[in-house]
Every structure is written in C-alpha cells, then in structure tokens.
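Morning, I've got a small favour to ask if you have a moment. I owe you a coffee for this, so here goes:
>
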Amino acid sequence: MAKALIQVAVKAQKGNCFRTAGDLLAVGVFSDTLAGSLAETLDDKLNGKISELKRMGDFEGKANTSCLLYGQGGISAKRILLVGLGERKAFKPEVLRKVASQAVSKAVDLRAKSVLLSLHGDVPASAKLDIAAVGQMITEAACFGAYRYDEFVTEKGKRPASVRATLVDADAKKVTLLKKGISAGMISGGAQNYARTIANRPANVVNPVTLASEAKKLAAATPGLRCTVLDKKQLEKKGMGGILAVGQGSATPPRLIVLQYVPAKASKNAKTVGLVGKAVTFDSGGISIKPGEGMHDMKFDKSGGIAVLGAMKAIAKLKPKCKVYGFIPSAENMPGAGSYRPGDIITTFSGKTVEIQNTDAEGRMLLCDAIAYAEKLGCSTIVDIATLTGACVVALGQKRAGVMSNDDTLVEQLKAASAKTGERLWHLPCDDEFVEAMKSKIADLKNIGGKWGGACTAAAFLSQFIKKAKWAHLDMAGVGVWGANESDAPGSIGFGVRLLTEFVCRTK
C-alpha cells in the first residue's frame, strides 16, 4: 500500500509560542491592522520590526505573501515566517487553510523538521469557527503543504523525511479541542495525500489490475473496510457492457472495484450511501484519439476513482453511522484491434443501449454501469465523481467542480460539506432538455450530445441510469490537478477526498 512520501505529524501543546523551541515559527499578519493580534505582540518583541516592514512596503500582510526573519532575540524558534492574512474584515476560513499549508510547505523547502503554528489565535469571531474545526483545518493544511511527489526521483536532495507541526496555545481547554480536531484532520489529510500519490503515479505503474490490487491492500490494512473486485469474466457475466467496451482496446483488462464499510453497530434503518468514481488509468481517447499535446496528463483521468479510494480509507477510520459502498470502475482507454468504435451499440448493465458516437466520451460508459449496480445493491443515495468533461472546465474554470443532481436537497448537503472542506462546487442543470439531446435514433441513448452544454448533457446521460435513488454527479475535470506552472506541488491535489468524507460523515 502507498505510504506517505514525507511523514507528517501534528500535535497541540499548551505553552507560549515565542518561548517554544522549533525550526520555524509561523505567525499571521493582517494587512489592515496589527491591533489585537499575535503579530502585534510579536512586533513589540521585535522592537517594531513588523511595523517597519509594512511601512517600507517590503511585507504588507497581503494574502499569499510571506516574509522570513532570522536571528530574532527573545524568540526560541530559529526562524520566524510572517504569512499574510489579508484584511481582517475580509477574513474567510479558507485563508487559514491556505496560510497553514503555505507555512508547512515553506518549512519543507527550508528543510525544517519542526514548525510552530499559532495561526488559530487570530481567527476573527465573525468567522464562527469552533476550535476543534480550526484544529482539523490546520492539520489537513499541514498534510497538504508538506506533500511532495518525488517517488521516482532517484536523488531527492536534502528534503526532510518528516515534518512535525505543533499548534501552541496558552489555554489548556483550547489545546484539548485542538487535539480533537487534529485527530480527525490527520485521518482526512492523510487520506487526501494517499490519494494524491496514487493519482500521480503513471499509467505503466497504475492500471486497472494494479489499482484493484492497491484497493485490496488498503482494505486488508484498514479495519472495517472490505474489498471485492469484479474481473473481466465477472463483468461479462453481469452484463456490464459499458465498462467492458471502454477497456477492450487495452492489453490490460478492466475491473470494477467495490469497497464496503459497514458500521460496527449498524441499525436496520441505517442509510446506504454509494460513492462512484471514474478511474480511467490512461485515456488516449481510443479510436477518437486525443491530440498528442498534453496527453501525458491523461494519467489523471483516474482522479475520480482515486478520490473514492481515499474517501473510503478515511470513512472507515472515522466510523460514520451509515453504510457506505465505494465503486471504482476502472479501464484503460486505448486504440487497438479490439477497441470499441464509433457507431457501435453497447448494452449496459441496466439493459439500456448506447450508440457510441465518440470513444473519448468513455467515462460516462464506466459510470453508467457502476451507478446502476450501486442502486441494485441497495444504495439509496449515490454520488459519482469524475474528470468527465472539458465543457465543465470551460464553464467553471479550475476553481470549482460542477454538481448536477436529481434532488435539490442532496445538492444542498454536498454544498454544506463543500463549505466545510473548501472544495468548491457550483450547481448546474441536467434536466429534460439535456436528456433530449442524448437520445439516439437507433438506440436508447448516444454517448455525446450536441455542441453546447457538454457537462450538462453528460450528467443528463448518467441520470437515465437511476431509478429511485437520490443521485448527484460531480464533474471535477477542472480541479483535479495543478498544472506544471504551480511552484509548490504540481500534480494531483486529491480533490474530492475530504468533500466525500465530510458528506458521508454528515449523513445519518
């Protein structure tokens, strides 16, 4: 099973952050005022150094900025990192997540093994965050900021093998609450980094068969989690034509991975939630082949399935009261003598037939089989997640995932989870007008619509494989990865792991 590349440990302790030893002390600075903040106290200890920096314009406390100070007398930490919080009046919880991640990332760059975080003390009352939630947020951010993907780099330089973050507070009651949040944050943050590693691995390492093996290892190592895998013969026996069609051009056969979590004391009325994630381990587009430029990033077309894998890892440890299935349909979409073709008509698990008009619209063919199977196994609520359409990126850019659903209450539940985790969603339609665009003249459906509203027509297609369950579709095509121009951690960001986990943990 994949292990963390840089080990992260987070703890909380009672004390004075200025008198606590460490390689780096991170302190937040508001751009509009120092009054009433930890930075004001630090400014006094540094004889007005922070005020001087602000007057000179060298560091003003604006968001996404930082300043490193050395050799400051009276401070036990070896270095001080000032991180900008922006305006106090404009403070949002996500600012805290970003600056905590920024601080730990800087610690890794400096090869600092220990970082002191006292950022929580400056959260305005208007933010309405409880201390335990703050502890969880900072811990998740610490895990995120420490992450580096250098698994196949033979010379890893002098980066630390581990980093320890300590949340320091003088109030013993706050420390107790911080510890509670840290415990949850280590689970969710660790699961997110686990997912990032699997997503970042190339297609010659992760294919449907090896991904299924990874899922089995995860289940074996995680109490409360079970895993079954449907191989090609079993998929054929069940009539899962969508999954089989996508994978038939590859030398590596497809798989349907099914993870299951059942509470230790599950009641008869416990809800059953199904999480479904698309895992195309490499997407060439098949016969409708993609342009060569950027095709190396098609290893990330498994990101939805990996989000489900990471979420199930966290869910089993957090022990929600509902039953949860994780379905990961996995295939490699390749051109070959056996590939499915434009013009083919595929019979799916549901019995519905689909006319293939473009083999690069393959994700929905995997998902439709898995969604129908999830409902057959008793899932009354189903959420699928996928890097499904470029159209969603055009519509929403790279900061939000689209959410489409047959139930507005379910959308609100997902948005509430999104507000907690910072993984943003935007509600898009998938009603009858979009369903109409997916109807075929020679089969029940076709796998692409017209020129417009591609994210909505794709979701409308999937909606036709739901009978009674509440269902939502998350199109994460724009938010799954950071590009190569990102300086700190290019590659997968593990989008969806914490979102799905939070959603499930809120389900009763």
Observations:
- Confidence is low (pLDDT under 50) at residues 484-488.
- Residues 172-200 form the longest helix (29 residues).
- Residues 101 and 126 are 22 Å apart (CA to CA).
